[in-house]
Amino acid sequence: MSTWAPASENATQKYIDIVSTRMNLAPDIQFDYSDELTMVQLVAAMQFVECGVPADLKKVAKGYQMA
Question: For the chain, how far is it from start to end, CA to CA, in angstroms?
């Protein structure tokens, strides 16, 4: 998370706590960036932190598949 939410711009630990809670994962887990479900959940949780609204998981999945 510190890569995408550096402490110079964010409350990084709070960001990590919210994302890990929304993903129901330990805050120190190592992600498998090739796993679509994990990445969709990660992006959706990050969108919630950034925008304050839940993500449309179908749209996030479509974006992942296009990348």
Answer: 20
Contact status, residue 66 vs residue 46, Cβ threshold 8 Å = no
Question: Could you report the per-residue pLDDT of 37-50, keeping only the tens digit for each?
Answer: 999 999 999 999 99
Angle between helices 36-51 and 12-23 in degrees, nearest 10: 130
Q: Which pTM value belongs to this model?
A: 0.85
pLDDT digits (tens, 9 = 90+) for 49-61: 999 999 999 999 9
Q: What is the per-residue burial (b if ≥16 Cβ within 10 Å, else e) of 2-12?
A: eeebeeeebeb
- The residue type found at 49 is V
Q: State the number of CA atoms in the 13 A half-sphere of 49 facing the CB.
A: 23
